[in-house]
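Preliminary data (for renewal application), adenosine-5'-triphosphate complex.
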Amino acid sequence: MLRFAARRALAGVAVLWAAATLAFAALHLLPGDVADAVLGPNSGAPPQVRAQIRQDYGLDDPLPAQYLRHMAALATGDLGRSYQFGLPVSRVLADQVGPTAELAVSAAVLSVGLAFCAALATGGRGGAASAIAGGIGLLALSVPSYWLGILGLAVFSFRFGLLPAAGADGPQALVLPAITLALPLAGVLAQVIRQQLHAIGDAPFVLTARARGAGERRLLARHTLRHAGLPVVTLSGWITGALMGGAVLTETVFARPGLGRVLVTAVGSRDIPVVSALMLVSAAAFVVVNLLVDLAYLVIDPRLRASGAVT
Amino acid sequence: MIRVEGLVVRFGDVAAVRGVDLTVGPGECLALIGESGSGKSTIARALLGLAGAEASVAARRLEIGGRDARDFDERAWRAVRGRLVGFVAQDALGSLDPLRRVRDEIAEPMLIHRTAPAGEIGARVVDLLGRVGVPEPRVRAAQYPHELSGGLRQRALIASALAAEPGVLIADEPTTALDVTVQARILDLLADARRAGTGLLLISHDPAVVARLADRVAVLRDGEVVESGPAERVLGAPEHPYTRTLLDAVPRARTAGSPPGSRVVLEATGIGKSYGARAAVRDVSLRLRSGETIGVVGESGSGKSTLARILMGLVRPDAGEVRLDGAPWSALPERRRRPRRGRIQLVHQDPHGSFDPRLTVGRIIAEALPRGPGRRARALELLEMVGLSAGHLDRRPRRLSGGQRQRVAIARALGAGPGVLVCDEPVSALDVSIQAQILDLLAGLRHRLGLAMVFISHDLSVVRGVSDTVMVMKDGRVVEEGPVADVFERPSHPYTRTLLAASPTRASRAHAAPHER
Amino acid sequence: SGSGGGAPRAGGTLTFTTDIEPDVFDPHVSPADITGVIMRNVLDSLVAEDRDGSFKPWLATSWKISPDGRSYTFRLREDVTFTDGTPFDAAAVKANLDRVVAPATKSRYAAVLIGPYQSAEVADPHTVTVRLKRPYAPFLHALSTTYLGIYSPKALREHAADLAAGGPQNVGSGPFLLASRVKGQQAVFTRNPAYDWAPGTARHRGPAYLDKLVIGFLPENATRVGAVGSGQSDVADFLPAGQVRSLAGRPGLRVLSHESPGLVYSYYLNTERPPFDRREARLAVRAAIDTALITKAVFAGQYRPAWSPLSPSTPAYDATVENTWPYRPGEADRLLDGLGWTGRDTDGYRTKDGKRFAITLLYVPAYTKAERRTYDTAVQDALRKVGVQLTLKPLDGAAYTPIRDRGDYDIIAFAWGGSEPDLLRTVFHSASRLADGGANGARVHDPEIDAWLDRAAATTDRAARADLYAKVQRKVIAEGYSVPAFVASRQLAVRDRARDVGFDTSAWPLFYDAWVTGR
Amino acid sequence: MIPGALTRPSRARPAGPVLAGAVLVVLAVAVAFPGLLTGRDPVVTDLTAALSPPGAGHPFGTDELGRDVLARVVYGARTSLLIGIGATVLGALGGTVIGLVAAAGGRRVDQALMRILDVALAVPELLLALVIVAFTGTGTANVLVAVGVAAVPNYARVVRGQALVAVRSGYAEAAVGLGTPWPVIVLRHVLPNVAGPSLLLATTGTGTSIISGSALSFLGLGPEPPAVEWGVMLADGRENLAVAWWPGVFPGVAVVAVVMSVTVVGRWLQARAEGRTA
Ligand SMILES: Nc1ncnc2c1ncn2[C@@H]1O[C@H](COP(=O)(O)OP(=O)(O)OP(=O)(O)O)[C@@H](O)[C@H]1O
Ligand SMILES: Nc1ncnc2c1ncn2[C@@H]1O[C@H](COP(=O)(O)OP(=O)(O)OP(=O)(O)O)[C@@H](O)[C@H]1O
Ligand SMILES: [Mg+2]
Ligand SMILES: [Mg+2]
Ligand code: NI
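Predicted structure:
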């Protein structure tokens, strides 16, 4: 177990390093001058300001030197200074992590919850209820999330004034963004769960469980839903990615502070320290999620425990 | 308890059951016998309202526990299942939820029907496991199904069917995967239950088992009852010719006339394999010559399947080595083994699990065949060799009977044209007549092509019929081995003696009193 | 400015939402308009500009300009203290102006605005003399903007690096304190109770009425409009023109509109290379674009079409150019034919010697509002109708600058706010090269225009300046260096409870006089 | 899944797949012969008729430049579907290959690939797409590649996870026993068993790709005006949503209809292939 943990930790560090390197490479290899990106197209900055910027951020040094400096700083936990904001990156990100985490976690919980509810509602029984629930699920997964967000705003905030349109204060402000982010995810998950339920419905152990007098609900709760949970676990990497990607649009539409918005502006203005810090954050999130996923596999499926083959 | 008249079950246009009448009263045992695919399992499932979505079920009369079940809704059915009628499914190996512990599976009926106070359930589970003859019940209760051998799983399944003390027990081939000692124990247990008032609907291909338990016997062919009556009469003096063929296919020695060759095709030395602290196989060696058959018998859980998988190169042994055709085998990486895979084939103990549920029978078999035209024709030929027909070619395994699936597995193994065949309970789900057909088929191959076999079976008479030498396993060890006649006539190890003594031989059936212990 | 009935009342909170959040909250560094708007509440200036272009005392009670126009002597108020308790004095002024030009500050706008600044001398604690390298008429205007606002010298000493972040460390002497900032969401200001030095242009004296001012950032138009519609915000900035009419009709809401002074949104035609090195080509393209109709359609009748490079609300605007270059597609065809673009290819575009009349417009989408892209698309279609293919080429910020600086384009388009006609110099003086921080997008080298602009900057005679700038405008129109498109208005939706939100000369909202009615 | 008690099996004709098929046919026509569905030119502006509501002349109304929304939806289908489906196919194919190799290739290969994927996943899709477009230039094809490549890691992870389970199944073992080469096992047994979730992701991915493409357009890296594309229409349409719903709603409905239809048809095909009635 200890060796396992050590190996995973090492792999995690390697992933972080690679992510940071990649970000550095990508943004430095892009055509165009970083200083121009920092200044923006409409600034009336004289050339000496540009020179000063280049000098301050060491942009005139050879790339390997810049890279080494960047990595050395990262290793000591120093994320550097944002080009765009002129602030330490840690400060730029500090108050943004919370809102994004809040949004992502609530959307994740909501989507998984909704998906299982939908599967429960439609599972087993045929008929109208199932068809309607299935249709709603289908609709949910088909609607582009930011379009959904804007329509939701139009209806709930502007038309009826039920929910605040923007910001991140209080749980009310979280309702619409979380739903917007969660619904399409829930649609996909519900479909996956339904499919898996279908596949597993033929298994002999399901017949046996029925023969014991288990009702549909018990069957789902005690038997089939766990099997259906496996692909959901498999999808958690995707869920994480979708949440991060979705956060960018959702945060923009609902004017929530958060990492997604920071990312958009940072990429747009080629704020390398911020982008690579964000990549580190996102890589770290994936490393953690993958670890959890692998553990979840082991918890859910005992067959994998024995073979010990799961990474 | 159960009374059915005119039961008809159709799968699409095919009527699997056509107008069957039967009754099972309290404390009474009705045995359903019949060839593979005759509709036995379908009847069993229909009596629980579980014939499946593709099935249409109709009956003139269907009474369960005195109530008309024809207009039962789901709720009413649920009250019946597990409580009034317990069910042991034929597919014992796949009938336990792989994600749940054995104890949870066994406890489930008690929880559903609230037949035991929550506090006592744990103790009852252990008690039940003990009663069905599972050693170390406490340890086993905490394990997952994949950690159990086939026989252990079957016993766990029986325990779960009995957990809520049902009024009637429907047992579909309850002893297929059990060695004779354990089988005897299960039969005793069922007899006890029957004496305590439990009705029993027993489905079995094995006349000996039927003879031990049944009051009455119904003989099924193509979904119809061709003969029924008191067990003694039907088994002792069958009237219908079909019944006679079912019962009279006496196993004969199929080894005669073809002495084994001299070439050693498969050799295992000092094989050992442990799962955690449990040694599944310890220090087993064997040499198999072309044209030779080694029978493997032994206690359930003694490591037979594990040995088979090691021989196949599917599981890497912790100790020892397997050589195929004199060349290294178990020590090779899979990539190097692959070209020679066709030389050695396995008939899985759990055929159902070894089929990709998405493929049709035709494609399952074709997979074993060399690429090229005529694969389908060859697949059909193989199917016919095991007694199936073109109609089965495009079905998916789910829609086959237990015995049919087993035969597909055999056809697939033969399709590769192996020189060595490892059979793990290849005929456990087959009635005697089809058993005979399969065994003749294997004997023919052996005779003509020098096919060598490792033949694992719980059925001593079958083993005796096909094997040249026999190995007796217990707790992962070979406790006795030798020429088949020697071992069977003059067993030296006490376990072998118990085994032989417990065997419900055909000879015993004529005078086996149904109520005798 | 919008005023309601009743007497102003102290207390309460006003929420103002705008679209873009400044990266950098330090106006000495940032070029963003919004930085100026926000920090106006915190930083006072030496002088205040009035709507008529005259200057009123603020932190300076009076000033004298030397006859050569190269030194300005300011007499400062003696009763002013910064909100950190530091007294305001001549040294503070010097510290601020010196900071703006220091290379380490990396000022992206203020350093340009301050022009030929040379030094500041503390004559006595309350007198400061600023020396310029050459005469520079817009200097007072520059001083009046937030970009040259005065920080507490203590804040400059102790928190120079943190001023960009925006927060309590940004200390000035203004009517509000920047109490807190949540990045990506809002900045919160609280009243400076000691404030008693409002500029002469303000409507009242003493502290601001509002207890608290919240400035929120909602980039999405729909969200911002929705926020004011639902009452989550009291004032919404930058209304999309299309929604003005429907909002104006909503009970409880008013729409305030101010035409922005400065350079209007114009298409600058690259005069250094074909086809726009030919005057006829420029005039043809201009004649083919029906700016009146496009402006009306794109901005739902809210904005006016532009006739001059300057907005009508800018001092020195020349009204005589109005209607001198109407939409005349026939004229466009005639001019193009005259230039030899007589062929037509399969797509219907004009050709000459087998080459298509194809031109590109560069833009940076991240900095381009949707309305402008729509406008450009309409222009594209208008040009298509006379056989000219216009490609709208999007580029990211870093890629754009070098291409633009090189002049590898036919058209770029932009607008520039500000109440100073000297902006004309930034776009038409030959020295205002793009690569040097200028904005001569048409790459004009016109000695006549250069001379007029130089003379205008050197004199403080307002009438003379107006005359010179009018000449420049007429020449630009006559030569077709640019195609002025529309005059933007800053339009705000204001809920009834918000009163007396003011506008400065650049049409930027001011909150010193603002107040809110009781709930 | 309904246990057959005393019942007949239900044999309802599914209306969904038929409807969805019809939508896809209309779509195919829009892609191949847009002229059949509308007589108008999608790029011609008519400033005097800007933002006219849906009516006789313009069934879907006009946008802020007076262009016919129906024509734009019809002509936009080509670019949008190219990006949506192309990127999805690219992403799903690439991801499936990598995922299967990881699952079937043994521990070391799996570890290595997964760590690489961790890195790839850590790169925000937006950034990856930006970098790709920055190197290849803007335009439809490049957007397609950018969005597709950015989606690869996601598919790879999902496929690998599902494949791990299938690889350890009894039938995969049986195939090993038959000497079936790994690639064949993977193709014949593992792939069909992982196809479910990945197909589902792919069908949704079509919509998501259109949206990602539009996010790129939004950053100015997509198809340039006057190119007609649903994502751009969605982005532009939202500006006027409060005063004119039609320019923003119709392209959105088109995206939804496409994704729904693809999903329904895909599911139906899959069910048929497996011989069940679902
Ligand atoms: N994957 C596994 N994990 C843990 N224990 C296992 C595993 N596979 C087999 N065992 C254990 O190894 C022992 C031998 O099992 P095996 O399946 O070889 O028995 P068998 O002789 O084939 O029995 P049966 O006749 O009942 O099929 C059993 O105790 C079983 O529980
Ligand atoms: N779901 C199904 N769809 C179509 N045919 C089926 C289905 N299930 C069973 N059958 C067919 O119905 C017949 C009866 O099957 P059943 O399982 O009842 O046989 P059985 O008597 O139990 O045989 P075995 O002894 O081999 O288990 C067989 O021919 C089988 O192929
Ligand atoms: Mg059966
Ligand atoms: Mg076994
Ligand atoms: Ni048997």
